[in-house]
Amino acid sequence: QVHLVESGGGLVQAGGSMRLSCTLSGRTESGLTFSDITMAWFRHAPVNARVFVAGISWFPGRHAYADSAKGRSTISRDNAKNTAFLQMNSLKHEDTGVYYCAATELVAVHTQTDRYNFWGQGTQVTVSS
């Protein structure tokens, strides 16, 4: 079974940057490992639903970003380390929330939470205003 662990959250000043990490261990029921798994980041803030932030497919070159993250965010992966990263710059108060790492065997980067089979425990990010 797949297990995901996020790290890198904390308190950040508005205008600053953060770099989140998500490490995957194990394999899917189909026997797939990290290099054949699509990864994504979602954010959950009070009142709001869990929303898509960014995703990166197992297929090389395929990425997707939410409009709020586009232009100041970079999602990447290191298959040798079984780790996905989210670099986000120019942070604002609205970026505050619990960031969850998610994984799916699908090749497309979906924005819907129900398309992802595996989830991490989340890491809190607080951006001071």
Structural features:
seven-stranded mixed β-sheet, four-stranded antiparallel β-sheet, mainly beta, 129 residues
Concise description?
Helix content is 0%, strand content 47%.
Please write the string of helix (H) and strand (E) elements: EEEEEEEEEEE
Gyration radius, in Å = 14 Å
Structural category: mainly beta
Regions with pLDDT < 50 over 5+ consecutive residues?
A: none
Major β-sheet, in short?
A: 7 strands, mixed
Quaternary state reads single chain
Head-to-tail CA distance between termini: 40 Å
Shape descriptor: globular
Content of β-strand: over 45%
- Average per-residue pLDDT, rounded, comes to 97
**Roughly how much helix do the residues carry, as a percent range?**
under 10%
- Strand tally is 11
| Helix count from the secondary structure assignment | 0
Explain this structure.
The chain is an all-beta fold and 129 residues long. The chain has no helices and eleven strands. Strands 2, 4, 5, 6, 9, 10 and 11 form a seven-stranded mixed sheet that branches. β5 and β6 (63-65) form a beta hairpin. It is globular, with a radius of gyration of 14 Å.
Summarize the SSE layout with pairings.
Elements: E1 3-7, E2 10-13, E3 18-25, E4 38-44, E5 51-56, E6 63-65, E7 73-78, E8 83-88, E9 97-104, E10 118-119, E11 123-128
Parallel strand pairs: 2-11
Antiparallel strand pairs: 1-3, 3-8, 4-5, 4-9, 5-6, 7-8, 9-10, 9-11
